Amino acid sequence: MKMNIVTHKFNKQEFLLNEIETEKFFEKQDITYYTVKTKKTIKDVINFIVWFLIVGIGSVGLLMLGAILDRI
Predict the structure, then answer these.
(1) 63/60 Cα distance (integer angstroms)
(2) What average pLDDT does the segment 5-28 reach?
(3) Which of 28, 37, 61, 66 is the most exposed place for a label (fewest CB within 10 A)?
C-alpha cells in the first residue's frame, strides 16, 4: 500500500499515512492547508531502474536490427 507524507503548510507538522488513513484524515481537515507527497519505496526505485534498463536494451537492440537490415 502506498504511503503518503502529509505536511501542514504553516507549522510544518508531518504525518505518515497510508491511502485509507489519508482519505479519512481529509474528511475532517481542509486540504488547502496541507501538501501531500507520495513516499518512494525501495520497490518503486528498483522497478524504475529495471524498466529503464529494459527499455534501453530494447532500444539499442532495435537500432542494431535496423542497421543490419539496412545493409541487406
Answers:
(1) 5
(2) 89
(3) 28
- The Cα 59–Cα 51 span in angstroms is 12
Dihedral (CA of 17, 23, 6, 3) sign: positive
Q: Which residues contact 14 (CB under 8 A, 6 or more apart)?
A: 5, 6, 7, 8
SS (H, E, C) the chain: CCEEEEEECCCCCEEEEEHHHHHHHHHHCCHHHEEEEECCCHHHHHHHHHHHHHHHHHHHHHHHHHHHHHHC
**Which residues have C-beta within 8 Å of that of residue 31, sequence separation ≥ 6?**
none
12 Rama sector, left if φ>0, alpha if ψ -120 to 50, beta otherwise = left
**Which pLDDT score is estimated for 29?**
84
Confidence check: pLDDT of 72 > 90? no
